[in-house]
């Protein structure tokens, strides 16, 4: 079985895979390691892969060394069953690389747009030939709300949950509607531009803020909450089995 750790900017998620099936998940993962020790006690964990965007996983890596579990710390340079066409793979976030690998594993031989709506919104493109070509990064919802509050004299910090009349009827709804509408339009605009160039495009949406994105049923969009975890699983297996 394969254990994956996705240590993001906001929280850490652990997933346990038996083959292609996720059999257990913990989010947010408690820092004391108790849940992981319990999984290792219950299941035959053979390997682990970690995506860590902020070097938060050191205690977990120490734990896995103690438990003698082979651990892969994923970077943009980690070998994968996907060609990496990024010009600076050493700067590519492990979560972006894992999400691209996970999407290509689910839908091989397709043009793919992977949108991860988290602390940042990342847009990553995989060609039907099986090559990762890169993508874009923009601020996520929390950063947009925080920027308005922190870089103005009077605007309050607004929660994304709540009424969104258009136009806004007071300052909180003006901010909420403005931020959410701008974020939605940005994502929709990116999808439209890429679809114009790739008629066969398939779209994956993941990340904690994906729930705020609304779309019509005609769009070829798949919501995959475990996309990064799936990619980490593929990378762990590929680097411990496929490359022997």
General description of the model:
The chain is of the alpha/beta class and 244 residues long. It folds into two domains: 2-108 and 226-239, 2-Layer Sandwich (Nucleotidyltransferase, domain 5); 135-222, ATPase, nucleotide binding domain (Nucleotidyltransferase, domain 5). 34% of the residues lie in helices and 25% in strands. The chain has six helices and eleven strands. It has helices spanning 34-42, 58-66, 94-106, 141-150, 171-197, 227-242; strands at residues 2-7, 12-18, 21-26, 47-52, 71-73, 83-84, 112-117, 120-126, 131-139, 202-206, 221-223. β8 (120-126) and β9 form a beta hairpin. The mean pLDDT is 93.
Under the CATH scheme, which class of the largest domain?
A: Alpha Beta
* Domain module count: 2
CATH superfamily of the largest domain: ATPase, nucleotide binding domain
Report strand order across the widest sheet. 6-9-8-7-10-11
Average residue pLDDT: 93
Helical/strand content category:
alpha/beta
Return the string of H and E elements: EEEHEHEEHEEEHHEEH
Beginning-to-end CA distance, first to last residue? 18 Å
Keywords: ATP-binding, Coenzyme A biosynthesis, Cytoplasm, Kinase, Metal-binding, Nucleotide-binding, Potassium, Transferase
Catalytic activity: (R)-pantothenate + ATP = (R)-4'-phosphopantothenate + ADP + H(+)
Organism: Alloprevotella tannerae ATCC 51259
Family: Belongs to the type III pantothenate kinase family.
């Amino acid at each position: 079985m394969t254990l994956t750790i996705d240590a993001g900017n906001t929280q850490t998620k652990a997933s346990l895979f038996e083959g292609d099936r996720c059999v257990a998940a913990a989010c947010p993962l408690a820092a004391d390691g108790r849940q992981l020790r319990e999984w290792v006690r219950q299941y035959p964990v053979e390997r682990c892969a970690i995506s860590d965007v902020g070097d938060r996983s050191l205690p977990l890596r120490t734990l896995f060394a103690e438990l003698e579990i082979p651990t892969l710390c994923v970077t943009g340079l980690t070998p994968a069953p996907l060609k990496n066409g990024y010009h600076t793979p050493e700067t590519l976030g492990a979560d972006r690389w894992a999400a691209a690998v996970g999407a290509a594993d689910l839908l091989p031989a397709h043009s793919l747009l992977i949108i991860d709506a988290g602390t940042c919104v990342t847009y990553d493109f995989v060609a039907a030939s099986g090559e990762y070509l890169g993508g874009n990064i923009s601020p996520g919802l929390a950063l947009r709300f925080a920027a308005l509050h922190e870089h103005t004299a009077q605007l309050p910090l607004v929660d994304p949950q709540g009424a969104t009349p258009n136009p806004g009827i007071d300052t909180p709804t003006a901010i909420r509607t403005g931020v959410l509408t701008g974020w939605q339009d940005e994502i929709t605009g990116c999808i439209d531009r890429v679809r114009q160039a790739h008629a066969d495009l398939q779209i994956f949406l993941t990340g904690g803020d994906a729930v705020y994105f609304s779309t019509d049923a005609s769009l070829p969009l798949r919501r995959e909450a475990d996309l990064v975890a799936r990619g980490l699983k593929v990378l762990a297996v590929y680097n411990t089995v496929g490359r022997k």
